[in-house]
Amino acid sequence: MPGGMSETSPAPATTEDPTERFASLLASEERILVVRQRHWATFINAARWFVLVLVAGLLVGLLREGVPSGGILGWLHSSLGWGFGVLVLIGLLGVGWYYLEWRRERYLVTTRRVIEAGGIISTFSRDTSLQMITDMLVSHPWLGRILGYGQIDLLTASEGGTNRIRFLPKADEFKRSLLDARHEYELEVGGAKVVHEVAAPPPAPADGKLSGAEVDSSITHLAGLRDRGLITAEEFEQKKQELLDRL
Fold first, then answer.
1. Of 135, 172, 165, 170, whose CA–CA distance to 151 is shortest?
2. Local structure of 179: helix, strand or coil
3. H or E stretch at 117
4. Which of 61, 130, 144, 233 has the greatest number of beta carbons closer than 10 A?
5. Tell me: the pLDDT tens digits for 108-143?
6. 41 vs 47: CA distance, rounded Å
């Protein structure tokens, strides 16, 4: 470079690991797969009454401008001024509070659960086990189709019955993420069961030999596990050879 200057490339941006960020909510070896924030219409819907209060305050302020500050209507001018200040303050505080709540609330899909976490002064977390989810229903209200959000009803086998997630952007993608997470969970649980079965086979005769029928049945069982993706092809070949060696 001219003048002895060397060009330096900007440092790559680092992305925060959500598993580390929400580590206090997770069990050991539990990982976060998806983090989703609800649509901005959430806080508008929750703070709608405070929005109306804010609008009312602005209207009072406009009305105050048309009332003279002196003379017989001076008291009305002052009263409208106080009303404007109180209504605007209450409206801003309410809208601001619900905005902060919306900013902090998150839905997390982990390798075991669906977690709703949030709160400002006092935090909360509610979770639904992937194992307990029996079905998922996705719906799109007419306003949601315009603004880009939907609703998911998680049907569970628990006493609660249904866990409803409203104002969820890209609800169909969120459902696919849940299906993938549940599939991964089932493979994890099924894989552990397979390892246990393979590690602890039924007792063999004292000489360690197996009959042809026993070997054939065991290989057929292993082939079924391989076809369902519960063991790898390499594990199948290894166990198959071990069984053949015991003929």
1. 165
2. helix
3. strand 113-118
4. 130
5. 999 888 999 998 888 888 888 888 888 888 999 999
6. 10
Backbone dihedral region for residue 81 (phi beyond 0: left; psi -120 to 50: alpha; all else: beta): alpha
Instruction: For residue range 99-108, list pLDDT tens digits in order.
Output: 999 999 999 9
CA–CA dist 86, 84 (Å, integer): 6
CB 54 within 8 A of CB 91: yes
User: Can you tell me the distance from the alpha carbon of 96 to that of 87, in angstroms, rounded to the nearest whole number?
Assistant: 14
Asked whether the predicted pLDDT for residue 174 surpasses 60, the reply is yes
H or E stretch covering 134: strand 133-139
- Kind plus residue range of the DSSP H or E element containing 155: strand 149-156
> Of 238, 176, 241, whose CA–CA distance to 34 is shortest?
176
Q: Which two tokens stand for residue 113?
A: 């659960």
pLDDT in tens, 197-225: 554 455 555 456 767 777 777 788 777 77
Q: Structure pTM?
A: 0.63
Structure tokens at 237: 């070949």
Q: Is 68 helix (H, G, I), strand (E, B) or coil?
A: coil
| Positive/negative CA dihedral, 62, 63, 64, 69 | positive
End-to-end Cα, the chain, rounded Å: 75
pLDDT on residue 50: 92
Question: Is there a contact between 97 and 54 (Cβ–Cβ < 8 Å)?
Answer: no
Number of H helices, E strands in the chain: 8, 7
CATH number belonging to the domain at 29-180, selected among 1.10.10, 2.30.29, 3.30.2010, 2.40.10: 2.30.29
Quote the CA–CA distance of 107 and 125 in Å, as a whole number: 10
